[in-house]
Every structure is written in structure tokens, then in C-alpha cells.
Amino acid sequence: LTAVAETLHFRRAAESVNVTQPTLSAQLKEMERRLGVQLVERSRSRVILTPIGREIAERARRVLRDVEDIRDLARRTQPLASTIRTGVVLSLGSYLLPLILRDLHESHPDLKLYVREALPENLLDRLESGALDLLFYPLPVDRQDIVTIPLFSEPLRVVMPHEHPLAQMPAIPPGKLKGETILTLEPGHRLYDQVKSLSDAYEANLSHDYEGTSLDTIRQMVAMGLGLSLLPALYVRSEVAREDLVVDRPIKGAEPARLIGMVWRRGTSRHDEFEQLAGIVAGILKRTAPEIDLRHPGPRP
Asked: How many helices (H) and strands (E) does the chain have?
């Protein structure tokens, strides 16, 4: 039922729980028979949950989450030795995870990270429903029953074409961005909200005609002269410094940054394990990412 509620598609739901479509349909009909209510409206073109079906599916997610917590608690003979279903925002995952995964695997070979990238609100929904255990996520988070722990502050750098006049400066005074066109991700990303606020503060013009679907798209549009951008330092290190398409400069004075942390459900049986993981990740980043400002003290003694 929860798979159907998430996908609204019988074939994809069946694939997600590793059964055939006829088996899934039969099990769903048996559930409806036992409960005495219709859970799903079926047609050739679409699947729709009934109102009672939506309510039962939401409660079922909570039940499954609690059952998984019980299993985790029972099988965990040592911390960081099982699978953690991890979510990470699209503007972070590809540039953070390579910095930590090798060392993490060497120190904890039995730890497995299932990683899903998505938009922020989707990740929080999945965390609350129990589909994910842990997020690497921009802070703050404005939802209840969520635990957050800061990991690091990541500066935002000005990225521009080589021929732009500001490229001759070692650092960009904020006043120099007045009137400049700023490119950023499309709405729905936390980075969009932050860059919009900074553009307003700098009296720059946030572009709505050319919104990027990824940081790479933004970088390529900057290279073509469509505007400047403010991009996270880990991305700059990974992609901007690697290719000669654009140049990056810090903002002079109080450099803008985004705060990245780890996020999990309050009350999870893995709270202590996640706290330990945060310390280990901070210790790895201290060695591998000099661009960022650590906000976590590192591994616990």
C-alpha cells in the first residue's frame, strides 16, 4: 500500500517491493477485503488513493518506520555496521560524499550508505515517513520532531567568465555586484532562497529567465556570458577549479556561506550512532576539505 501511495503506479510499486504486478494487485485486494474499505481507485490510465486509503497509507508508513527501528535495534551488535538510508540535497551530494566515503569505508567496512538525492522538501518528507534514516542537509530545518547537528559552514564564491572586469580582482567587494545578473538554481532548492536573499542585499538582479537545473548548468551558462553566480565552495573545488571554463573569487569582508548539517528523526533508536557518525565525518572533512569551516568538534573520545 505504501509503495502504491508513493508511486501511484502498480508496475513501479511492484518493482520497488520486489514482487510481480499481479502479486501486488492481489495483496492489495486482500487488504481491502480484510479492512472492508476501498483503498485505491483503479483505471487503465492512473491510480488514485481514496481518502481513507491516503489516511491508512500515512499510518502504515509510521508503522513500517517503527518496525524498521525495532529491527535496527535488535540486529545492531555494534554501531555503524549496517545500512543507513541517506538523503542529500542535489547541490551537495556529488561534491561532499567523495570527500568522506573512502575514509569512512576503510574505518567502518560493514557500514553501507544507501544514498538518494532529491529536492529539500522531498527529502524531509521521506525522512519523516521512515523511507530515509538520515540527511545531509542545509540548516536550519523548520519541522518538528527533527534532530539537527551542524557539520560545517560552506562559503559561496562568485563565479564569472574570464573576461568579466571583476575577474581581475582578488576578492569582490559586495557593492561591485550591484546591477549584475545573478544565475542560480530553480525554486525548490534551498540554495535558490539563499542566493535570492543575497542578490537583494547586494542590489543585484536575480535571473528568472535562465534558472539552472543543476550547478553544472549554471556554470556553463556563466561561461557563455549570461551572468554571474554564487556557487558553494565544495562544488567550486570539484568542478570550477578542474576546468578552465570560468573563474571564482571570494566576496570581500563577511563571506556568505551556507550551513550544512546532519538531520534525523527525534526518537530514533539510532540517535547515538548518528551522533558518532557526525563526529567521524567532521574528522574526515578536517583533513580533506580546507575550504569549509567546521562547526562540529570532530570524533568523540
From this structure: 10, 12
